[in-house]
Amino acid sequence: MEKKNWYNLSVEDTVNLLDTNLTDGLTEAQAAERVETYGYNELKQGKKKTFLQKFLAQFKDTMIIILILAAVISGVVGILESKEPVISVLDFLEKISDSFIILLIVIVNAVIGVLQENKAEKSLEALKKLSSPVSKVLRDGQILMLPGKELVPGDIVILDTGDYIPADLRLFEAANLKIEEASLTGESVPVEKITSVIEETDIPLGDRDNLAFSASLVSYGRGKGIVAETGMNTEVGKIAAILDSTEVTQTPLQKRLDKLGKMLGIAAIVICVLMFIIGSSYGKEPMHLFLSAVSLAVAAIPEGLPAIATIVLAIGVQRMVTKHAIVKRLPCVETLGSTTVVCSDKTGTLTQNKMTVEKIYFNNNTVDVENISSLTNELKLLITSIVLCNDSKIIIEEEKTKITGDPTETALVDLGLKFELDKDELESTEIRVDEIPFDSERKLMSTVNKDSKTNTIKVYTKGAVDELLKRCNRILINNEVRELTEKDTAEILKANTSMAENALRVLGTAYKDTNSESADNAETELIYVGMVGMIDPPRPEVKSAIEKCKTAGIKTVMITGDHKITASAIATALGILENDDEAITGADVEKMTDQELENRVKHISVYARVSPEHKVRIVKAWQKHGDIVAMTGDGVNDAPALKTADIGAAMGIVGTDVSKEAADIILTDDNFATIISAVEEGRRIYDNILKAIQFLISSNIGEIIVLFFATLVNWVEPLIPIHILWVNLITDSLPALALSFDPAEENIMKRSPVPANTGIFTKGMIYRIGYQGAMIGILTLIAYRIGIHEDPSNTILGQTMAFAVLSLSQLVHVFNIRSKTNSIFKSGIFNNMYLVYAVLCSFILMIAVLFIPFLQDIFNVVTLSGRDIMIVVVLSIMPVLIVEILKLFKINSFKDEN
Where are the transmembrane segments (predicted)? Predict the structure, then answer.
């Protein structure tokens, strides 16, 4: 069937096109035939990755591949080095112990990655649940209850309050029909539906008032519709298609670590080749040179880094839970810290998703509700009339008051409660005896209420101000009823316009005394009382959160399906729309090419009346500038953009299942401010990962200097492979891991985000890694030379002292890493007790290796004399003295300023 703009077609044309019957519906034979043609009314789901595929994907990382190669080479070397044949499995495992340890680290890292990153692709399953309710369908002239999946184009669906819409419908009956479409369009109030033809073409989803969309909810009234689209052809289906086609991109940290792995791999190869060439010039045996080169390769690669990065992020995930954020994909924790743009939905995210009366007009004057301290007679009558002319219900659940009904009407009842005018109490005295329900053509509602004490009868009417004024001939001002003049009308309409321009939804109210309990002629000769202006107000904490974004160099952008005037008013109040910022609509976005949108995107702060496709285009336009985009939202319509963004943050309370499954992070308190707390946590984690990288690489640089220099001057190697592997996996890894618990720096949210294209090795980082690595390497070489000074043939003593200084100096040096500028005594040693415990643990393990006989044999070390121990201690604490002096003269961080 050719794709149609169903809202442009009349009911008759729709019936003819779909070959159906409004009174009898389709026959069972027609329905069966159409199932064959169109398929079931359900959403297709892409093929999911198996656990094995996700596990194997963890090994695509460059550094992981290098580690696997290192493990294989280490295993071969272990067997070749052994002079004795392999006689048992245990003997074999002992010879490849280095290889086994490296592979174990790699596998553990992969398992953690899969468990944390197993981002279940349940988006389409959640959509299926929404799009497959049981519906009342007319078939063969009878009303049947059918599962939503069995509906076909041409079916006649009967709608009542509380029903989910099972497919996209062209409405042909609508009796006070209002449908909640917020999850699909972003509009904060239910849409009043019509049946007439809409002449305009290419209008936004939220303005197609003669259609009902799959996954939306009937909040009021009743109606009937013809199924026009099913399955993947519905508006929800289009969203499902976008979700299924969206690819998950690498996070900034993943890209940086991947680049780091390649650099380390190349560096290891280059150094090994140089070492081989230099060694050959000294006439050393090729096998000996090969073993030395492998030792150097092991020294160049921080084996523990992938696991440490993964564990640091996992710890960050647990911390995020305490900040009301559930992280579904591990690397996203760090990505938050790089966020430069937050694109936020309005309804339920920036606002409370609860209509609230903000202004009241009476006595020819507009006042803010919050400024009203007491009720005048006119104000009491105004509030009483809108509370009684109201179909909302007050429910007490677990000692909490809950108001159910149309959002506009619940706001009026809530206003009454603020001023102790309880609807139930009022109705117990003024009993409703008749009514004229709201009608979208009249735009009015009236009730007739009889006072049980005085037997007096009043008519209360509320509705659109212009329509209400046509029914009024008098006005209540300053406790006096007088004739309604043209001047009064002009003042009222002016106030109405002013409220509307401030994005307030306005309702007027009037009353009259009557002798009849009938509603006949109730809406004539009314007395105008006043009007109220309502809006879905901003969350109180959001404005300060947006200010915090500005100081942190993060731009906030509002993207909503609501009207432009409403979106602009909220954005202005929150500080999103200011200066030369622009507010445009989805229609404007539709007219732009991708290039035009990319050129203008930095100057646009508000997008109104947008579709899910527009949201995705906006996110991509920012990403093309190199920005890291976080997207917050709660509706089905937000899901594609949530998945496309670098970080998708869904609301946990009011958010739909679809948005939660598409997102990377779920905010359990539905608080926009939580995303800013999460950004702060992300920055802290990124800083701490950089500290760990600096610590590990500087340590490895020290090892490389030791081995390379020894080859250069034709010394016996100061360190053997097991020493290097022990330092890299045990002595270094525990303190590096503990750095993840370092507290955030005071200025962390007062600096700009790290650009996505900035690598790990900035000028400052290279400088610190270089000089600190050289410092550790030189101190280790000094220890080695002292050890072999008296007896050059006694290399085992020199190797023991070098091994001890290399390990212990790094345990001391880790405290230098915590701050580039502050002394360790100023930044505090004991404000990260995990680091203190990690250093103590590594220290105890190192002492065990140095002094327990059977461990001495394994590590090929000897017991040190008191003199040797003193030398080791002095050399090991030197890094603190050196770095403290450089910090004092601001030499430690001067490259950061260049």
Answer: 62-80, 100-118, 263-283, 289-315, 693-716, 722-744, 765-784, 796-815, 835-854, 869-889
Are residues 644 and 787 part of one domain?
no
**Whole-angstrom distance, CA of residue 589 vs CA of residue 557:** 15
Residue 95 in this model has a pLDDT that exceeds 70 = no
Q: Are 567 and 346 in contact (CB under 8 A)?
A: yes
495, 641: one domain: no
Same domain, 688 and 665: no
Q: CA angle, corner 456, sides to 453 and 459, nearest 5?
A: 125
| One-letter amino acid for residue 418 of the chain | K
Q: How far apart are CA 720 and CA 712, in angstroms?
A: 17
457 lies in the same domain as 551: no
**Which listed residue (155, 345, 414, 536) is catalytic?**
345
Residue among 830, 814, 626, 794 nearest 716 (CA): 794
Same domain, 290 and 363: no
HSE-CB at 529 with a 13 A cutoff on CA atoms is 24
Task: Note the Cα 383 to chain centre separation in Å.
Answer: 41
Q: In this predicted model, what pLDDT tens digit does every residue of 629-665 receive, in sequence order? A: 999 887 777 888 888 899 999 887 766 666 777 788 8
Q: Are 372 and 450 found together in one domain?
A: yes
Per mean pLDDT, which range of 264-278, 562-576, 672-686, 879-893 is the poorest? 264-278
Is residue 707 scored above 90 in pLDDT?
no
CATH assignment of the domain containing 263: 1.20.1110.10
The overall longest dimension of the chain from CA atoms, in Å, is: 121
| 834 inside domain | yes
CA distance 208 to 171: 11
Q: What secondary structure letter does DSSP report for 758?
A: -
Model confidence, pTM: 0.70
Q: In the 8-state DSSP scheme, what is residue 362?
A: E
Query: What domain range includes position 408?
Result: 356-535
Report the alpha-carbon distance of residue 296 to residue 292 in Å, rounded.
6
| E-state strands within 283-392 | 325-327, 341-344, 356-362, 365-368
Average pLDDT over every residue of 27-45: 88
Encoding tokens for residue 8?
């442009």
List the one residue out of 703, 708, 742, 744 whose CA is nearest residue 723.
Answer: 703
311, 740 in Cβ contact below 8 A? yes
Cα separation, 364 vs 489, in Å, equals 10
Picking from 785, 636, 597, the residue whose alpha carbon sits closest to that of residue 709 is 785
Per-residue pLDDT at 745:
84
pLDDT band at 122 (very low <50, low <70, confident <90, very high): very low
HSE at residue 546, side-chain half, CA atoms within 13 A, is: 24
Q: Are strands 393-397 and 400-404 parallel, antiparallel or unpaired?
A: antiparallel
* 8-state DSSP, 518: S
* Domains held by the chain: number: 4
Q: Which of 535, 552, 573 represents a domain boundary (last residue)? A: 535
Contacts of 84 (CB under 8 A, 6+ apart): none
Is there a catalytic annotation at residue 258? no
Closest by alpha carbon to 144, among 152, 129, 134, 153? 134
Taking only the tens place, the pLDDT of each residue in 761-784 is 788 998 999 999 999 999 999 999
Count of residues for the chain?
A: 898
